[in-house]
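Researcher: Next entry: ABC transporter ATP-binding protein (Deinococcus taklimakanensis).
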Amino acid sequence: MRRVTAPDQLPAPLPPAPAALEAVRLRHSFGAVTVLHGVSLRVESGEVVAVTGPSGSGKSTMLHLLGGLDAAQDGEVWWAGERVDTLDSQARAMRRAGRVGLIFQHHYLLDDLNVLDNVLIPCRLSGQGDAGRAADLLARVGLAGRERALPEVLSGGERQRVAVARALAPRPAVVLADEPTGSLDRANAETVAELLVSLAREDGAGVLLVTHDERLAAYADRTLHLLDGQFVE
Ligand SMILES: Nc1ncnc2c1ncn2[C@@H]1O[C@H](COP(=O)(O)OP(=O)(O)O)[C@@H](O)[C@H]1O
Ligand SMILES: [Mg+2]
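Model: Predicted structure:
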């Protein structure tokens, strides 16, 4: 009689799910000055991680490498289980459009495009997300009815909420935010931070939030401290 499943033929256990974002020993210098000294981190899907550190500690440099905006001089960057630091910059940009949502201190909306078309930019580049998803996100950030407005007629807080909707529109695996509320007053900063974190969590994105702001770091599941280009306890 034939055994259907011999003990040594049992299916192997499933490998652990890939992290939303992983960095391995990232190193970066500007000229003779080394700004990152081998930084490693892992952000799981649905997890929110804050990075704090004094000005000049390397936070923005790290975020640019993690978002593939600059090429790491050494080390690895992985988005949802795919290594991307080895891609050329154009391939990385195409990958980024669908996988990584970026939010900066300043919103960087395109002035000639209306609110809806700004939110649709990463969708059009990646083929992920559509006008329905974009309009839904705009409603969630309190901007229903403003789809056709140009950015110039919006307040700073409203523009930053458009930037949040734009980052999330293609359902990215990773959201990277660099001082996303740094240009806002306190009330607007709280609103934007809450929206960013709750919407990203609902979508199961992994979020890395660079901030000076203790109140913003309080939204995270854990906080990493960067000092002189290294994580410290
Ligand atoms: N493009 C650049 N060219 C030269 N030096 C840079 C550049 N970008 C950042 N630096 C330097 O790298 C260090 C870290 O900067 P940054 O990553 O912006 O820190 P943070 O965001 O924590 O304030 C600083 O000393 C800064 O002056
Ligand atoms: Mg910075």
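Model: Note for the record: The mean pLDDT is 93.
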